[in-house]
Design goal:
single chain; 434 residues; 51% helix
Length: 434
């Protein structure tokens, strides 16, 4: 005897009608004909809403509730909840008792345990019990999913991922009173910090308003003084003329604009290549702002990835060509210190694309949403352990479009074991081989 499957499995077989329809009867012996299974309710209340079915000679329109055991209805106290008064059918794996509606009337019950394909149930339970990196690992290796199905699923995953990323944009817009340029400035700064200094960089942008920098848009040194001063990384006892000038400028403007700097300890330098030091990133960000202080407008106008690359490619000022920090010991040969190609692509993926997508969604401009997707198709796939593992299973990522979809798949489906909501999981389960 197979163990009882969870309710999620019942939702799956009901929604996709993956059970034996021959001679459907209630546990009371009444004939059942299903016209519409209803739609899944993710909120409180019955599991499927607005179903249509015939019980005996009568048509019924209402909701469907599902449980592993019929007695779960009583255990969940649905008989006391008016929200369940419109349930017309109780679908259960095992009918261990008769139950009633809140008004005391008996409720029609359909038992499923002898109507589910044992191979399908066995395959699902194997996925549930799997301890592998992703539950369907073995099935995926032996039963590759057709590319056309993968492409369709990747598109849905990518939209899900972009919508997830836009939550932060919406929150930042709320904080900036719907100022798109300010919100973009803050989140672009966040991504200049990459993983290790993302929070510190976003905090720097938040405490150094774009409106303040705009007053000095034609003076790179003033922009550098404000950003470095607000970062807390500017030394009080400078060792060179450039740093002294920044310190003096910052002291003047900090009083003028009533600015409060961050604490130096918020920044991370350990286990980091000098080219990625936050001091270098701030110098790059200062030049980027100096070259184009209406960054969001410029991003909206860009028609290609190459235009975005040009926007984000900015050389540091003279001091930073030979220094990585403000300490004299950091001096080196003069080097170009522009953002690397991989770094630029990460900023496009994590800032430009979500902003274009969200702007299009907010204003109902599909062209911006489509451009966001097109940019991802033009970018190379990221490289990390998750994507390497997927490649070993036959799920290669030829572009950032694919890689972003796969990262969403791992985080929101595989890790959370939502195989029944996954198109790949559905495809593998629907194959007849055990």
């Amino acid at each position: 005897m197979q163990p009882h499957p969870p309710e999620a499995f019942l939702y799956y077989i009901w929604h996709l009608k993956r059970f034996d329809f021959e001679n459907l009867k209630t546990t009371q012996g009444e004939q059942i004909t299903i016209s519409k299974t209803g739609y899944r309710n993710e909120d409180a209340g019955p599991d499927f809403l607005n179903a249509e079915l015939r019980l005996g000679n009568d048509m019924w329109y209402g909701h469907v509730e599902m449980h592993v055991r019929a007695s779960d209805w009583i255990r969940h106290k649905h008989q006391e909840d008016p929200a369940y008064s419109s349930v017309v059918l109780h679908v259960v794996y095992h009918a261990d008792c008769e139950i009633s509606l809140p008004n005391g009337e008996p409720l029609a019950c359909l038992e499923m345990k002898d109507r589910i394909d044992p191979a399908l149930q066995q395959k699902y339970l194997a996925l549930e019990a799997s301890k592998q990196w992703i539950p369907c690992e073995n099935l995926l290796i032996s039963n590759p999913v057709p590319p056309i199905k993968l492409r369709s699923w990747y598109e849905r995953l990518l939209v899900d991922r972009l919508e997830t990323k836009t939550h932060r944009i919406a929150q930042t817009l709320e904080e900036t009173h719907q100022d798109w340029e300010e919100a973009f400035y803050r989140l672009l700064a966040r991504n200049f910090g990459f993983k290790k200094n993302a929070d510190a960089f976003e905090a720097l942008a938040a405490c150094t308003p774009r409106s303040v920098l705009l007053r000095h848009k034609n003076k790179l040194r003033h922009i550098e003084a404000l950003l470095f001063g607000q970062s807390g990384l500017l030394p009080e006892e400078p060792e060179d003329d450039y740093t002294k000038a920044l310190r003096d400028d910052y002291h003047f403007y900090a009083k003028k604009y009533n600015l409060t700097p961050l604490e130096r300890r918020r920044w991370k330098f350990m286990r980091m290549r000098p080219a990625n030091f936050p001091t270098v990133r701030i110098a790059q960000f200062a030049v980027l702002f100096f070259r184009s202080n209406h960054l969001f407008s410029k991003a909206l106008a860009a028609q290609s990835v190459s235009e975005i690359r040009n926007m984000l490619t900015s050389e540091v000022s003279g001091y930073w060509k030979t220094n990585y920090t403000f300490e004299g010991s950091s001096e080196s040969k003069a080097r170009k210190k522009t953002l690397g190609n991989a770094s630029i692509e990460l900023i496009i993926i994590n800032t430009i694309v979500p902003f274009l997508f969200y702007y299009g969604a907010r204003h109902q401009y599909d062209s911006f949403k489509q451009r966001a997707m097109t940019f991802l198709e033009e970018l190379k796939s990221e490289k990390n352990q998750i994507l390497s593992r997927f490649a070993d299973l036959g799920l290669d990522s030829g572009s950032a479009f694919d890689s972003q979809a796969l990262l969403q798949l791992k985080s929101f489906y595989c890790t959370q074991r939502k195989c029944l909501q996954c198109s790949i999981g559905n495809t593998l389960l629907n194959r007849t081989s055990p």
